[in-house]
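From the pipeline queue, job 12 of 40. The input is one protein chain; the requested action is below.

Action: predict structure.
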Amino acid sequence: MTEPLDAVAEAIENELRLIDPEVRSSAPVLTTMLDPGYREIGTSGRLWDRDTIIAELTAEATTRPGPLTVSRMAGVELSPGLVHLTFDTEYKGRRSHRSSLWRLTGSGWLLYFHQATPFVDDPFTES
């Protein structure tokens, strides 16, 4: 069994890898990182599944933003093989709270669920 801190560290490493613009534009890599049952609630509120998010991220016409700034990433192993990550991102002044569920499968750690919620002011941010 993976130790909790190792599980969280692996999930964080994979999450940061998914944020990399090169990874996000590679269908073969995304296919190996997203669970077949993957679901996402995007910043717009749109619902995505694995196939539609991979198609959108890798489409020729997709505008590819630069790297996101990530802050306050934290994780907890909810049960053996299931890690919940929370973090914030910022790109060109647009900030989002994010939540991801990573689960350990026979293929390794795969992202199972992700949600991004835009925010302006955050009472939990230190001033």
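Job complete. The helical segments are 4-19, 21-24, 27-33, 50-58.
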